[in-house]
Design a protein that fits this description.
alpha/beta; 19 strands; binds zinc ion; seven-stranded mixed beta sheet; single chain; eight-stranded parallel beta sheet
């Protein structure tokens, strides 16, 4: 199946899509349906007969029919024509100061959360509502994976137990040069989406190459994503001439900027040792021009810090500050070897941090001073990094690791408690990515990105403290249902919208080619 074929098979008429850039062809194909819908809406206001017919018409046109409240919204991408009501269960809203709320009823209308209340079995349900029985579950915001290279699922297990420099320059870069192209990035990204959705991640911040393919894969899977075009001063997959890297990045942003509310573009500078000063400055100028975050690996290893110091005479954070790149657009990933003055500086500049503990541990990069950064006022999110250095995308495992690593590192079991770690993976993740108005908590009016955790598992019994259970006992496989943007993507652990067998078969086939040429 070609990319375009896959796209068309997946997307009949998603009304969240706008009219510019990459989506123009699809949008125009949707226009007749949109016109029909506009006429239907106009008639609906005055005709009770049409009101009665709406569920039928809606199903025929794959458009929302959930009542007047929908008319003021951008529309639903769900293809579902009913309100969704999650009934029963304990709500962990992640709203500051709100305690877990038992036996809730949450109404999802279109893309958003329309109502939250304690369930009253006597109150009437909206007509045609789709009910999700959530008794014996925890209902919480979908997790935010604040840093990854999703298509690196292709290289999962290709090079383990080697030093970072050898891992990167002798294993990963050559494998990427040989095997990355639009099709492989597309299928690798889709596999990553399957893995993330199956383990409760609903938003990912990705930085890689061939990002058109990544954005297409995220869109097909139904993920919410910040998709950042990789910028590096070497010939890179898809950008063979490094002099074109910023131009390619800006072109990518312009192409995807208005594509969808779910998919946002951006830039990702690989690191201070692989990007020159002018590249870093240029990437920040573009990010500021479009009001988008700029992602960057920062101070991952002590060797990197030494190299920057030798080249610039300054430690990395001060170097970034002096060239005008340390500000609130910057998302610094890893941040393992920041010293105290650097942490103060970044806190002052409102630079955001992403902690990727398992990748840092696996490549022996070190342990970030996460609890100290939080005390200094830095906003810290949680990420998995790519699958070749983790080697999975399960944020539940990452949460447990983040908590335990900090305790080991600081010799203090009080540091990095479960509730703090859960904030890093939800509400603070949303803030770091600049998406806090839409996601990160479960509140009326926010986008319906919700996961439901099945508590009927031996390792989750008994339940004294839901934060503790989620961080220290649960794993991704305990996620039962996943809703993104009001659309049910996984129900009772079964994917509702994508064929996971097809995706795994495609990646297995790609991996055979990788095995033949990259393993020796
Ligand atoms: Zn990374």
């Amino acid at each position: 199946m070609t990319l375009n074929m896959a796209k068309q098979a997946q997307r009949p008429c998603q009304s969240e899509r706008r009219s510019s850039g990459a989506a123009r062809g699809d949008y125009e194909a949707c226009v007749p349906y949109k016109k029909v819908w506009s006429l239907l809406v106009a008639a609906w206001k005055s005709t009770s007969l049409l009101l009665a017919m709406t569920p039928f018409l809606c199903r025929s046109l794959k458009l929302p029919d959930s009542g007047g409240a929908m008319l003021g919204q951008a529309g639903s991408s769900s293809g579902d024509c009913k309100d969704i009501i999650i009934e029963g269960g304990t709500l962990l809203s992640m709203v500051d100061g709100q305690l877990p709320l038992k036996n809730v009823s949450i109404v999802i209308r279109g893309e958003s959360i329309a109502d939250i209340r304690v369930r009253d079995p006597k109150s009437p349900r909206p007509r045609n509502a789709q009910i999700i029985d959530a008794r014996e579950t925890i209902i919480m915001p979908g997790l935010v994976n604040a840093h990854g290279h999703t298509a690196m699922t292709l290289f999962r297990g290709l090079a383990d137990d080697v030093p970072l420099k050898e891992w990167l320059f002798e294993k990963i870069f050559p494998a990427e040069a040989k095997h990355l192209k639009k099709e492989t990035v597309y299928w690798g990204s889709l596999l990553g989406c399957v893995e993330m959705i199956a383990s409760g991640t609903t938003t990912v911040s990705d930085g890689y190459f061939f990002q058109d393919a990544t954005a297409e894969a995220f869109d097909r899977a139904g993920m919410r994503a910040l998709v950042a075009q990789g910028v590096i001063d070497f010939p890179a997959p898809g950008v063979p001439d490094p002099r074109e890297n910023l131009k390619a990045g800006k072109g990518f942003i312009e192409k995807w900027l208005h594509f969808s509310d779910r998919i946002r573009p951006g830039l990702f500078c690989h690191s201070l040792t692989t990007c020159s000063e002018s590249t870093l400055r240029g990437a920040m100028e573009i990010s500021e021009e479009f009001s988008l975050p700029l992602q960057m690996h920062l101070s991952e290893t002590s060797q990197e810090v030494n190299e920057v110091f030798l080249n610039t005479g300054r430690r990395p954070a001060f170097y970034l500050h002096d060239i005008g790149v340390a500000n609130d657009h910057l998302i610094a990933v890893h941040a393992v070897h920041l010293d105290e003055p650097e942490m103060h500086l970044l806190a002052e500049r409102k630079t955001r941090i992403v902690h990727v503990p398992e990748s840092n541990m696996k490549l022996a990069s070190g342990a970030a001073k996460t609890s100290q950064m939080l005390k200094m006022g830095l906003k810290v999110a949680l990420g998995t990094d790519g699958c070749a250095s983790n080697n999975n995308l399960d944020l539940f495992q990452e949460m447990g690791t983040a908590a335990k690593l900090d305790k080991v590192f600081t010799s203090n079991p009080v540091n990095m408690d479960a509730a703090t770690v859960l904030k890093m993976a939800t509400v603070w993740g949303a803030e770091v990515l600049g998406l806090e108005r839409d996601i990160g908590t479960i509140e009326i009016g926010k986008k319906a990105d919700i996961i439901i955790i099945d508590l009927e598992k031996p390792h989750l019994v008994p339940l004294y403290n839901p934060f503790s259970t989620l961080v220290y006992s649960a794993n991704g496989a305990d996620v039962r249902d996943v809703i993104i943007n009001g659309r049910i993507l996984m129900r009772d652990r079964k994917f509702q919208t994508i064929d996971t067998d097809e995706i795994m078969a495609e990646v297995k086939s790609i991996s055979e080619r990788i095995k033949r040429t990259s393993l020796c």
